[in-house]
Amino acid sequence: MPSSPKSEKEKMISGELYNAEDPVLVADRLHSAALLHKYNATPHHPATHLIQLKDLLGSVGDRTEIRPPFFVDYGYNIHVGSRVFLNFNCVLLDVAPITIGDRTQIGPGVQIYAADHPRDPSIRRANLESGRPVRIGSNVWIGGGAILLPGVTIGDDAIVGAGSIVTRDVPAGATVVGNPARIKQ
Questions:
Q1: CA nearest 148: which of 140, 119, 11, 122?
Q2: Quick one: 66 exposed, middle or buried, by C-beta within 10 A (0-12, 13-18, 19+)?
Q3: How far is CA 178 from CA 20, 93, 143, 182, in A?
Q4: What are the Maltose/galactoside acetyltransferase domain coordinates in residue numbering (predicted)?
């Protein structure tokens, strides 16, 4: 029996070109928007917010704190370890998996983009998008206002300086700063 074609959601999660206007994906974004609205509007208390995060995210470890406001596309593609801290106003565009390891600390206004777009304008006109996973190791410190681009991996114990734009992988234990972020000597 021949296999059925992939859904737009399956294409999205696997990093293939997909149509973001697919009704299932639109419904998923509306669902996450409703959960985010509740999360961002509720007075902050770690116990109740952890329950809400478990409804929104793919997985979240114990003693993790994400301060509102917080923004995602879907939520279910985000996997956060234990004792992780995200400060105010972080944006995670999770069309592909975003993984954050245990004890990672992320400053205010950090943006993590798994979402990408084709460079060919005709493909963009066809409403096709893609994504590449972002992986952040354990015990990483990401300074406020940093931006992580699609497909990057940040190794364990690394530091990303405030305001840095990470365009390529960061080795474990390295400190990177600047635009584009480069290893600090």
A1: 140
A2: buried
A3: 32, 22, 11, 6
A4: 9-62
158 within 8 A of 175, measured Cβ to Cβ: yes
Give the model's pLDDT for residue 2: 63
How far apart CA 171 and CA 18 sit, in angstroms, is 31
Structure tokens, 2: 């021949």
Distance CA 71, CA 39 (A): 10
Structural domains of the chain in order of their starting residue, each with its CATH number: 8-183 (2.160.10.10)
**Residue pair 140/158 in contact by the 8 Å Cβ criterion:** yes
If one counts every other C-beta atom within 10 angstroms of the C-beta of residue 84, the result is 23
**CA end-to-end span of the chain, whole Å?**
58
pLDDT of residue 1: 59
Could you give the dihedral angle defined by the CA atoms of residues 165, 167, 169 and 175, in that order, rounded to the nearest 10 degrees? Answer: -30
Please state, in angstroms and as integers, the Cα–Cα distance from residue 4 to each residue in 10, 17, 33, 109, 128, following that order: 12, 17, 30, 41, 20
The Cα 146–Cα 136 span in angstroms is 13
Residues carrying an active site annotation = 117
